[in-house]
Specification:
Strand order of the largest sheet: 1-3-2
Number of helices: 14
Order of helices and strands: HEHHEEHEHHEEHHEHHEEHEHHHEE
Shape: globular
Strand content: 5-15%
Distance between the termini: 35 Å
Largest sheet: 3 strands, antiparallel
Low-confidence stretches: 373-393
Radius of gyration: 23 Å
Number of domains: 3
Number of strands: 12
């Protein structure tokens, strides 16, 4: 194993590396850029930003997926608030301090001025929680630092706090080549960097294939263009050798799926499985579906998918709760069966294990790679991967 694969892995699995936060990792990456810089430029075609404060690999996907959002966010309002906070921070210099009440007033005024669909109402607990989630996200990324916090905004509308800008906020959002005010679809933003280029040939096709593999959990046939599929088939061996060299992964290519299988010591992409109990439950559902295929209760389609009616999948999930009730956390024990089914299906869709089709769902082959079971002698709470009973999607 080449020691530098860990540095590239860090760039792939983190938003950026800030020197003040992680000086050792920062200098390891910076001192060994020559090893993987060519791979990033020629295979991924991604922008690598290196300066004296941080190093960032801009990971723009070939196809956007739900799980590519900010994992701690649960509401679109949080994304709106995030952008408003970034605008607030735009003219704040490094080390400049500000208080929470000023930020709150700015957000309210700006949301009203811009005539946004949702103007935050701080009397509503959920709106206050959304802002706290945004602030926590910015603290985690070292865009702001806490100088002093009194009480908690979710519990007290009059809570005050003093924060400090690190000056990194202007680097959070990527630069666009064109006028984004003219964009009308998500793909406009995705393809901004390839404007007026033929995506089916040459460099762009290669970039997109590697991005499918490294920036996505899995790429299904319907996510790939015929030209990308052709590239994968023709250059499968060289792609695999290249990825194995730089990422300790093996390329698996089936009729309907292209996926990278990583060595045990590497971190799973996109935090799945994770420490949430809902993740463990999802693994049990995957296992049950596969068992039904093995027992000929379910049939694989020619494209390696499984067609299920909504009622059938609901029944499987209900059985999971009933069969594993003693292992569930209090939250899931007390949850109504309809709410339980809804949350599990939402999670299955979120991580692209299933997609809706006419009259039901299609189950995709990635479920065969991520399954779970409870040993017969295990009498502990459901905790396949260190599950957190308070975890939310």
């Amino acid at each position: 194993m080449n020691i530098h694969t860990k540095e590239l892995e860090y760039l792939l699995n983190n938003y950026w590396c800030v020197k003040e936060q992680n000086p050792n990792i920062y200098f390891q990456i910076k001192n060994n850029l020559d090893y993987y810089k060519d791979f990033i430029q020629t295979k991924l075609g991604s922008r690598l930003i290196v300066n004296d404060r941080f190093i960032k690999l801009e990971k723009i996907p070939a196809v956007p997926k739900d799980y590519m959002g900010i994992s701690s966010f649960t509401d679109t309002l949080e994304y709106t608030l995030l952008l408003l906070v970034l605008v607030f921070l735009e003219d704040k210099t490094k080390l400049e301090q500000f208080i929470l009440s000023n930020l709150i007033d700015y957000i309210s005024n700006m949301a009203t001025t811009l005539e946004l669909n949702t103007v935050p109402n701080w009397n509503i607990l959920h709106h206050r929680k959304c802002l706290v989630n945004v602030i926590n996200h910015l603290k985690e990324l070292y865009i702001i630092k806490v100088v002093e916090e009194k009480n908690v905004f979710t519990e007290d509308m009059q809570a005050e706090a003093l924060y400090e800008s690190t000056g990194l906020s202007n680097y959070y959002v990527r630069e666009f080549k064109n006028n984004i005010l003219e964009y009308t679809t998500l793909n406009d933003y995705i393809n901004d960097e390839f404007y007026n280029q033929n995506e089916n040939i040459g460099d762009v096709r290669r970039y997109k294939v590697y991005r499918h593999l490294l920036y996505s959990l899995v790429a299904y046939q319907e996510d790939l263009s015929e030209f990308e599929i052709d590239y994968l088939r023709k250059f499968r061996s060289s792609i695999n050798n290249e990825l194995n060299k730089y990422t300790l992964s093996e390329l698996e290519l089936t009729k309907n799926m292209a996926v990278l299988l990583f060595a045990d010591e590497t971190k799973e992409k996109f935090d799945f499985p994770n420490n949430k109990v809902i993740s463990d439950i999802t693994l049990l559902v995957n296992n049950k579906v596969l068992n039904k295929v093995s027992n000929n209760e379910l049939v694989l389609n020619d494209d390696e998918t499984i067609s299920l009616s909504k009622e059938y999948l609901n029944r499987i999930i209900k059985d999971i709760k009933q069969e594993n009730y003693n292992y569930l956390s209090k939250k899931y024990k007390e949850m109504t069966i309809d709410s339980f089914v809804k949350e599990v299906i939402s999670y299955l869709k979120y991580y692209d294990f299933i997609r809706e089709s006419s009259g039901g769902y299609k189950v995709y082959p990635m479920i065969s790679k991520l399954i779970g079971y409870i040993p017969k002698d295990d009498h502990e709470q459901l905790n396949l991967f260190g599950g957190d009973s308070n975890g939310e999607i």
